[in-house]
Amino acid sequence: MDHRRPWWRTAVVYEVYLRSFADGNGDGLGDVPGLRSRLPYLAGLGVDALWVTPWYPSPMADGGYDVTDHRDVDPRFGTLADVDALLADAHTVGLRVVVDLVANHTSAEHAWFRAALAAGPGSPERSRYFFRDGRAGGNDPPNDWISAFGGPAWTRVTGPGGPEQWYLHLFAPEQPDLDWGSPDVQEEFDGIVRSWLDRGVDGIRVDAAPAMAKVPGLPDAGHAPGASFASSTWVDNPHWDVDEVHEVFRRWRRIGDAYDGDRLFVSEAVVNGPERLARYVRPDELHTTFNFDYLKAPWDARALRAVVDGTLAALAPVGAPATWVLSSHDETRHVTRFGRAHSAAAVMGFDDAAPADIGLGLRRARAAALLTLALPGGAYLYQGEELGLPEVEDLPADALQDPTWERSGHTARGRDGCRVPLPWSGQRPPFGFAPAGVRPWLPQPASWASLTVEAQDADPSSTLSLYREALRLRRELLSEEPLTWLDLGADVLAFDRGPALRCVVNLSAAPVPLAGLGRPLLASEAVGAEAVGDALAPDTAAWLAPG
Ligand code: NOJ
Fold it and tell me: Where do the Glycosyl hydrolase family 13 catalytic domain residues begin and end (predicted)?
């Protein structure tokens, strides 16, 4: 490893969806002390850093992405002292911690929004958000913009004299968008960014980054009636990926650069293609950005190779490393996705829930792990993927909490199926997620008894063992070596990363001979290297030592 390069260029970052990771206080909801108690597991897994989803005070209209105080911790998740203890313990075991910054919007319960409602039209309080008069005598929304959770992006407020202005929310109505043209907003978030960097966090994940600038005058976007929030297809959209958004990131980068220790800014940005994405990681902006094109690609060698090549080509001119991600708290778990006929990802839980072959999906997911962890740059793992968890597709309707469910008129179940609390141990729910007898905030399937950490821990053929071994080898063998493709046929992804590692992924329907390709190090469907044999079966992958 080259220790002069910043850690984030090659880091494997593990996403902790805090509500579902580990419950330390027995209320059925994950929390900071629960996470702290499981740090030895994460250190043993072999990841470099954690991204922890929001812990801020919140009414939880969108799982904590509706924040009332960006500098504090919700009592359900713990205290600032718990966060300090988490940071100290994480650093002791060699893990870095990245916090989630939700700056496009606040909660509708935030003091600023309450003040804006009370102050009325034209007030300075309203200028921190987007309040506008409606069209058609005030009765229609000010423009045609849409919410990521379905329906219009505007909600009308009622004043003392009856219905009056509308306010903008690109997400739920409980998440009013801030106007980043407002100096108040800019200065407040300078202080918030500093407050977390001062506390010692190693990085900041920027939520909904492309939303943080709007075209002045808020012109119509030209959305068709019933359009979905397909931001990866939009061109010149007035509420997404607007060029002025980059001013915000330059401002934050100047703040971050004044700190020691290679602090990281990583953005969540679903935009139209790798060239638009590369603009977020220009040398004076953010350091890295999630690569959603990779996550959204189907299990198809040509499609995946096109994403890898397109990503690397677009990032080379700006000098930023790629990131590779297969799942998150917003997407169908990839064991299930790869078990579907179409296998590409849908937007924000607007999934058609086509039937899935979970056995096939798991086989592909294990192969995909070896692909992901061999690609150049960093990788993001989503909690539970190291256990091979599938999406939970049969949550009872009355358990669903994602705003997508209500906003879609109960047509899209949303993202709860990937957010079911982790199974740690034992034979029945709550599987060690919470103290025995406590009901987790979402029900866990009884069938997860065979997928717990405890059940997989000592089994060399388990998905957990595969991830641990892949992460160990990655640390030992890989740094910033470039990728060189080998030609083993159009349905096979094969490449070298320098002299030490060759990765072969078979996406074809026939076995791929391995003779002459090198000494097997690890395979997605074999116990240890010895059992790989002389051919790689369909939907499996292997790492080899060439030469
Ligand atoms: C992206 C987050 O990952 C998602 O969970 C959230 O609903 C939206 N941003 C809005 O904050």
Answer: 15-419
